[in-house]
Amino acid sequence: MTTRAFLVVTLLAFCGCSLTFAAKSWWETASFYQIYPRSFKDSDGDGVGDLNGVTSVLPYLKEIGITGTWLSPFLKSPMADFGYDISNFTDVDPLFGTMEDFERMVTKAKELDIKIILDFVPNHSSDECEWFIKSAARDPVYKDYYVWHPGKLVDGIRQPPNNWVSVFYGSAWQWHEERQEYYLHQFDKKQPDFNFRNPAVREAMNNVLRFWLEKGVDGFRIDAIYHAFEIEADEDGNYADEPVSGWSDDPQDYGYVRHIYTVDQWETPHLVYEWRQILKDYEAIHGGDERILMVETWSPIDIVMHYYGNETADGGQIPFNFQMISNLDYNSNAHHYAEMINRWFQYMPTGRTPNWVIGNHDKNRVGTRFGAERIDLFNILLLTLPGCSITYNGEEIGMTDVWISWEETVDPQACNNEQEGYEWRSRDPARTPHQWSDTANAGFTTGRNTWLPIAEDYKLVNVKRERGVALSHLNIFKNLQELRKTATLQDGETEVKALNDYVLAVKRSLGENYTYITLLNIFDHIENFNLHEHFADLPAEFEYVLITDRSIKRKGDKTPTSSVTLMPHESIVLKSSVRV
Ligand SMILES: *[C@@H]1O[C@H](CO)[C@@H](O)[C@H](O)[C@H]1NC(C)=O
Ligand SMILES: *[C@@H]1O[C@H](CO)[C@@H](O)[C@H](O)[C@H]1NC(C)=O
Ligand SMILES: *[C@@H]1O[C@H](CO)[C@@H](O)[C@H](O)[C@H]1NC(C)=O
Ligand SMILES: CC(=O)N[C@H]1CO[C@H](CO)[C@@H](O)[C@@H]1O
Ligand SMILES: [Ca+2]
Ligand SMILES: [Ca+2]
């Protein structure tokens, strides 16, 4: 045996690492948490959450095992879309605090070893952004920062350039009196789209990334990237109509046309590669842990995969995996679950890391979409699958949607439309204030009013109470984070399968280490399985390491592998009694 081979063998024996030797980067098994700052914690009693509020509860993130948090925007904004309409990309909105407050938050997060990820909203700016104002005034530097068009004349009447529709209803083109042209807005008319075909715009956005890297952020979550590019104008400067979909008979409705020219243009992933290079350049000069990009795109899965990178360029480390959000509902059975999870593995390029998302500020809460009896199920699933998990604030305590009257509704996606059907369009129900305690306004604010109502169930569903209840959603979440630290859950192989229509199993194994099996009973039947019939090479006995309030077994109880029983809606994690 040569010395070198001997060294490798002893190293392997010594540290017990798996044969693929590469050390993992911090984010690869991270547990991320999305904070919606308006609703997390209010520090000054105005009823709106803010940065000092977030700073004050960072120890809570530590308590629940969070590695990093991405925060929805808190940048300068007229708040036509609650901060997704940014008027200054390098300034904090006074509603959320000051740049000094931001810096304090970063410092505190670093002390606690929690990574801070900023929401980067490149698809548009606010119409109150200085760049837009100058563009409208045809300032030579900014003239082409946005997508402008004179429109067309039909019978002498000026019409928008084409039939493109905004996500928030109505034409995607807005007439601008001063410039005497239309500008493109894929969202609200107060959110003009940038012209990413202009190199100056790309450089301006690159500088925004550099600015925040200098401020110490650990990465960015890129909002709605699939809207970045539109099809190029033809020789006459015109943009083609999108084909009518046949799904809606209202030409103002976003579903009226098929979006083949306004989303998912081939250039878009390359924009993300360019941004990743900026992060790498920064790391090369300043060192420190890897900076990350999370990419939000609601695209078909084969397109999503392009955001990981190509053969020569890296893209985002975490293109959000929305398979479960988009394709599962209340009635989905275990085969659907298995299929949605395995699809990601099938499509993911080798060497990349999977990620799992089940909720965010744009979707109904898990307990409302899938039923309160499945809240633990999803937390258990997300935290025992390999790769990174992303939890929307409040899901760890099992918050559910809050019904909000039309009068109290504030989400533009609902308010820009007629009243009929607003409940279906409004994203407010999943954005209500975080429930910290059973005191007034759930401990969210010391003020009298809150920007959205507090959930009626806050006296039962809150952090303080759940800390004291052994099998609360919160404590189950915390127990999961402890389990996640084991070598098998960090590095193990994964097998996901439906045992029948009702029960999903996730097996994690790692060489000669303990094997873990997550069993999720999605429905309300009692189920019994001989796990030997479903998985090879299992030892004769397993131990319960995680139970829920549906369980009749206790933690530490043993079960023969040949006969594992699940109660209705019971989700558990089992650990092999011996190393296999
Ligand atoms: C098994 O896991 C333990 C910790 O749970 C770890 O110390 C050990 O190195 C692992 N062994 C192998 C063979 O992976
Ligand atoms: C953004 O705000 C900063 C700080 O107030 C200011 O220096 C900068 O010029 C502003 N940028 C734009 C584009 O308005
Ligand atoms: C990958 O993307 C980079 C950056 O956009 C580009 O220059 C390169 O040609 C692409 N490589 C392949 C193999 O497509
Ligand atoms: C997916 C999506 O629509 N993301 C964001 C894009 O921008 C709009 C408008 O600002 C936001 O409302 C969305 O949340
Ligand atoms: Ca406040
Ligand atoms: Ca765009």
UniProtKB/TrEMBL annotation:
InterPro entries listed in its UniProt record: GH, GH13_cat_dom, Glyco_hydro_b, O16G_dom_2
Boundaries of every Glycosyl hydrolase family 13 catalytic domain copy: 34-431
Domain of life: Eukaryota
PROSITE patterns according to UniProt: PROKAR_LIPOPROTEIN
Keyword Signal: yes
The keyword Ribonucleoprotein belongs to this UniProt entry's keyword annotation: no
Secretion signal, residue range per the UniProt entry: 1-22
SMART domains noted in UniProt: Aamy
Name of a matching Pfam family: Alpha-amylase
EC nos: 3.2.1.20
Keyword terms, alphabetized: Signal
Catalytic activity: Hydrolysis of terminal, non-reducing (1->4)-linked alpha-D-glucose residues with release of alpha-D-glucose
Protein's UniProt name: alpha-glucosidase
Source organism per UniProt: Bactrocera dorsalis
